[in-house]
Design a protein that fits this description.
Blueprint lengths: L2 H13 L15 E6 L6 E7 L3 E7 L4 E7 L9 H14 L8 E2 L9 E4 L5 E8 L3 H10 L1 E7 H18 L7 E6 L1
Parallel strand pairs: 7-9
Antiparallel strand pairs: 1-2, 2-3, 3-4, 4-8, 5-6, 6-7
């Protein structure tokens, strides 16, 4: 077969419309991240990590936010890789060309994840949690937590988390790129 006929066959296959119906229960064995795309000022994100952990975050058109978390409270560097993967995905969506991030084998130097681009640039990422300690305590105690607020509240949490992290970072360490896990 020729390359032209192979490409034609592939195109015909890809252009077909398929309908799949599922019955019963569908479960996720890895991590599923879903984002609602809209133009009306609302936004939603869902993260499902197996059957034991989930996060739901919503922003409505008035600027009110809701956050629901189910599962166990993350400990230490737990969850850092997922945060880095989401970050790099967004950066690449906006035109970047970063590789899939990987965990830094030497957590003690303050860098959680590392990503590289084709030019050889290295992005060192440190993840910190912006949510208040009371949220994590409630999650730890009860296995779920819900909170409501505003965009202004969320921005204040982010700014304060960055300030705390920058205050702990040595002045001569410019290789660090603080990122937030909210």
């Amino acid at each position: 077969m020729s390359l032209r006929s192979d490409l034609s066959r592939i195109f015909r296959f890809l252009s077909k419309s398929y309908s799949i119906s599922l019955g019963g229960r569908v479960s996720c064995s890895g991590t599923l991240i879903a984002k609602k795309i809209s133009n009306d000022g609302t936004d939603s994100v869902r993260i499902e990590a197996g059957s034991s952990q989930s996060v739901a975050s919503d922003l409505d058109s008035t600027g009110s936010t809701t956050l629901s978390i189910r599962g166990k409270s993350p400990q230490n560097e737990e969850g850092a890789l997922l945060v880095c993967q989401i970050l790099i995905g967004k950066m690449n969506e906006l035109g970047g060309s970063w590789s899939t991030p990987f965990l830094n084998p030497d957590f003690e130097n303050g860098i959680d994840c590392i990503a590289k681009n084709k030019s050889g640039d290295v992005l060192n990422i440190q993840v910190t949690r912006a949510a208040p300690p009371a949220l994590w305590k409630e999650l730890s105690d009860s296995g779920s937590t819900n909170s409501m607020g505003s965009v202004t509240d969320a921005v204040s949490l982010l700014i304060n988390a960055i300030r705390r992290k920058v205050a702990k970072t040595p002045q001569n360490d410019r290789s660090l790129s603080p990122r937030l896990d909210i």
